[in-house]
Amino acid sequence: MAITEKYVGRSILRKEDPELLTGQARYTENLTAPGMVWMAVVRSPFAHAKIDGIDTSNAAAMPGVVAVLTAADLEVEWGGPLPFVWPITEDIKVPVHWPLTKDKARFQGDGVAVVVAETRAQAEDAAELVEVDWSPLDAVTDLEEAAKDGVVIHDDLGTNVVVHWSHGGGGDQTIFDTADVVVKERYVGPRLIPNAIEARACLAQPVPAMGEFTLISATQIPHIARVTLGGTCNIPESKLRVIAPDVGGGFGSKLNVYAEEALVLVLARRLKRAVKWVETRSENYLATTHGRGVIHDVEIAATKEGKILGFRVKELADMGAYYQLLTPGIPELGGWVYMGPYDMQAYWYEFTGIVTNATPTDAYRGAGRPEATYVLERAVDALARKVGKDPAEVRRISFVPKFLEPRTAISGLNVDSGAYEETFDKALEIAGYHDLRKEQQRRREQGDLKQLGIGLSSYIEMCGLAPSNILGALRYAAGGWDACTVQCLPDGKAVLKIGTSPHGQSHVTTWAQLAADTLGITPDDVEVLHGDTSVAPLGMDTYGSRSVSVGATALHFALEKIKDKARTLAAHELEASEDDLEFDGGTFSVKGAPDKARTIMDLAVSAWHAHNLPPGLEPNLEATAVWDPPNFTWPGGTHLCVVEVDTETGKTDILKYVAVDDCGTVINPMIVEGQVHGGVAQGIAEALYEEAIYDDQGNLMTSSMTQYLVPSATEMPSFVVDRTETPSTTNPLGVKGIGEAGTIASPPAVVNAVIDAIAHLGVTHLEKPATPERVWRALNEAGGAA
Ligand code: MCN
After folding, report:
1. Where would a tag sit more exposed on the chain, N or C end, judged by fewer CB atoms within 10 A?
2. Considering the entire predicted model, what is its pTM?
3. What are the tens digits of pLDDT across the range 241-251?
4. Which residues pair with 456 in a beta bridge?
């Protein structure tokens, strides 16, 4: 008997959790290998300094030290520099990025040598004794200063201004000259430092006789790492297996291929021993990519009633000292969504990428889209103030009306579907918007010390990366497809080998729910294997909220293939025509004769013993599908934040946070809520707490959690999460991504709320993070402090 119960759409508990919650997870840091040695990296203490010489002798003499090697020593090992796969324009200038730098350090933390020793402590102690003869140079971390080329970071490029990309505009640009109202604003978005619970770690194991290597890495992208590291390290792809075991979060920072992964591989080859490296939290702050780091000049055009007509954006984006895997592609990704959910007639976006003496930037949850949403939603509030309207009203009259078929946006891409006013209305209703405005008015009139602010943020995002042909047109080196193999085993269970690589997103549970519904079994009967290029060789990994839209759709098509084959087999066994079979809940039955039936799992047994197969049918019930999406998916929604700002101290307390998102059809509501919770927490951190600060010598001042304020659960409000479901037209499941939505939507909701609380006291602008000090200063400057 097949199970007829349906699992999709239900909040079933995570299959991943028992292992994680009982300490049986396999993180890279827990893993070991026979004969393993440890690597430590010697990093530059200077942001910009010439290397006049390196003396390794003291370090080499330390107990347990196996090797001390510099860039010059390792030169012969490389097939090429570290991978950079997104040269977004033909004339982009590409800084050469080797795993260790030879001539000079270009950011604090740039690696110059490695020490390999029998233990981690021995390697780290000896690394401190590597003597580098430095000649410090002037450093530049300020974007506008760097653009002046007073200090040039890459001599061979001759400039720090490395790329200029423009969307090319959409609609009628004269609107910015003729509109009733044009509001111009400048917003500065500081760098953010990703803080996954597990820092990075990698372990390379060689099989010297075979020239083979296994790299175990805390990565989001085992498949992409395999292709690209093969090139950097001169290892044929067929000889390199990459395993991402349990990975403790990434938030985009592990969507990268790092120097340390390349280094452990070439050291394993050279030393013929397994080599391991584990990042310390301080190293994580310096050597793992940062996010954001942008300055935006924007103009929003509107009618005098506040109907938005156009948005024009010029962005400066901090690339850091080198490109990592995707660096200049990140602002470009945002370049397609600055129109948000609004029906505009004119659009312009351009950005200039600038190299600085700071850690390279790259993807950080949202990657370009939080930057876009932040400046648009801040500008919408500024516009509302200018025309004297309620910010809710300005949004409501500007939304694109509901559409259920693809619609071409002013930025030129096709949006799959959208119902922005529905999420908006729901958010306002849940929050009790009109009562909140009354309460705000009451406090204003009474001159309360604690003023109330209401912040809105309506957003869309472009995720489900991505149609390969569009990626190609955007000059990205890889495709955007994904894959899944389904094996139905004779014991009534199924195995899925999936191409995505979860690190907190619950793919094991979600994929099992989908498979269980088709196969007529329970999610517990489904084993989901991932994150190992030898087990699931086909895949493009996890980022860009793509896994459900692309990867689970590949599962859907693999299940369709299984059904097709099972139908043929069922017809054969039941001596019926395929057309006379009905399929429901994992069972084929003959129309009108429900007793004549075969479950898919019965047929898996038949396919296995192969005693009586139709001619030509292969003896297995197994299928692989590779799916390349025809479009992105476009979630949207409205977030609403209610804050209380203490006008004496500048401190903000969040009283209420309402998130109404639309990610199309939902597979597991509990997991979707969890994704929104995590994303909103990150966005609140961005809005109120987190900011990477460099001094004028390029020293990272926020180099640990004591200075870089990652909020804890106690700083978080209780979130009210709701949704609408407008199915995507991009895939047959109707799903859109949700992994980044919270981070994209929340920062402007929070900052708009803080400004809304004190705008009547003269504060109409604040930069992120809106710390108590920043708010207090702004209130004092405006003369509005209590
Ligand atoms: N889901 C669903 N129905 C939908 C959409 C999603 O049930 N319509 C559920 C599924 O369970 C799915 C999960 O939500 O497993 C996330 O799906 P999706 O939106 O496709 O996102 P990805 O799995 O591709 O995850 C990537 C995304 C990104 S880009 C970042 S950054 C991020 C994030 O997910 N980093 C995370 N969420 C994270 N969560 C954790 N715990 N840790 C991170 O590092």
Report:
1. N
2. 0.97
3. 999 999 999 99
4. 640
